[in-house]
Specification:
about 50% helix; transmembrane helix; DUF3995 domain-containing protein; transmembrane; mainly alpha; elongated; about 5% strand; 5 helices; two-stranded antiparallel sheet; membrane
């Protein structure tokens, strides 16, 4: 697939993403999954590692909706990283009203992805220190399991950043001096 310049003149085709970037994009979606599944278990009423005294089942519908939405939205945001290595990250799918079929401007993908990667890196930077914080409401096994389920989130920002850099490099305008 070739790119079109703003004047409608074809430019050099975009090289395919490197295998490592495709793998990193897929890993991004996977690193978010364990913590989301844990939250869904909580919503379904499973104590999921909490002590009997520490577990407070979600009884209010809005609390359940919030936890489910957090899990689903997190996974959907992680799946957006795939757009940096798939054709729909270069041309908007035709089924999207008004803009379907148009070329994605590289900075329209790179800027939000880079900001997201930076934010995610900051948000999850302390996850490796999970076990240094007290978790009185969790059982010893629960503390271990929850810590293990959340550890992959530490990689979310850096993986997104790496895929974003790859996308940028593949889409940058060549020949500028």
């Amino acid at each position: 697939m070739s790119r079109m310049t703003l004047q409608g003149v074809p430019s050099a085709p975009v090289p395919p993403p490197p295998r490592w970037a495709v793998l990193a994009a897929h890993l991004t979606a996977l690193v978010v999954l364990p913590s989301g599944l844990w939250r869904i278990a909580l919503v379904l009423g499973h104590p999921a590692g909490y002590t009997e005294a520490g577990f407070e089942p979600f009884t209010a519908v809005d609390d359940k909706v919030w936890m489910l939405a957090l899990s689903v939205v997190s996974e959907l945001v992680a799946l957006l990283t795939l757009g940096l290595v798939r054709p729909w990250g270069e041309v908007v799918p035709h089924w999207i009203p008004l803009i379907g079929g148009r070329r994605v401007r590289p900075l329209a993908a790179v800027v939000p992805a880079a900001l997201g990667a930076a934010g995610l890196t900051l948000i999850w930077a302390t996850v490796p220190f999970w076990w240094t914080y007290p978790h009185e409401d969790l059982t010893a096994t629960g503390n271990l399991v929850v810590g293990v389920l959340y550890q992959p989130l530490f990689l979310w920002g850096p993986l997104t950043a790496a895929v974003t850099v790859s996308y940028y490099r593949r889409h940058r305008v060549r020949g500028r001096g």
